[in-house]
Fold:
Amino acid sequence: MIDIEDAKKKAGILLEGLPYIQKYEGKTVVVKYGGAAMTDDTLKSAVMRDVVLMSLVGMKIVLVHGGGPEISSVLKQFGKDTVFVDGLRYTDAETAEIVAMVLAGKVNKSLVSLIHKARGRAVGLCGVDGGMLRVEKMPGKDLGYVGKIVSVDISSVRLALDSGFIPVVATIGIDDDGQVYNINADTAAAELAAALRAEKLIMLTDVCGVLRDPADDASLIGDIPLRELPELIESGVISGGMIPKIDSCREGIRKGLKEAAIIDGRVEHSILLELFSDSGFGTLLHR
Structure:
């Protein structure tokens, strides 16, 4: 026998999402995939199903990924130590080759395969393809072959989207001499989102979002206009590893991205909760 009340509740959930489905129909949404959602099989499957659902309801989805843990694991297999300089991976010539192999090969194709398993259509790309992410050596401290993005060519991404595919983009770039560089995935996602004039960038992280009290998830700040960011950074509310994520989002919005959300990727279907509910599911940054 059908449980009428349960059926009504499910219908209500679907109806709550209707205006948001209409809002994002035909619009570009960039998802930066990382953290626990890349290492936990259950979360990984949930993200791929979310991405496929978003595509099927008419959104143009671009999935951008790094792969730090995978890189470290393969480096270990090759007998190379993982070296960090002020929290950033030092990338010598051999490491750059391994990074390209892992990100554009192993990680990228595994994600394309998972999307296929969820009955979606995806194509794997990296920042080298079509000169998508042109870089130069990162200025300042010597990090080896770690690149700063100087230009973005979205032709290959547009071609994939217009053909009905979900582009899955690995964050390596190339300089004018053909040298491959490692790139920060948050920065790459924000730069791509800006170049695509995306409606939204969603960053999956291992925290709820920006918290006034790091020990209290209930202190989540749900909405931050860009003008309030300097004060939050100065006061220490935004600090540590959250600062580069915020800076990437802020720069993306300044260059044409409409809004960015930093959400908890440790929760199944957090992407759908952010997009299709009245309350959202993290910290929203906007002009």
Q: What stands out?
A: The two ends are 50 Å apart (CA to CA). Residues 26-286 form a domain with the Carbamate kinase fold (CATH 3.40.1160.10). The mean pLDDT is 92. The chain has one domain: 26-286.
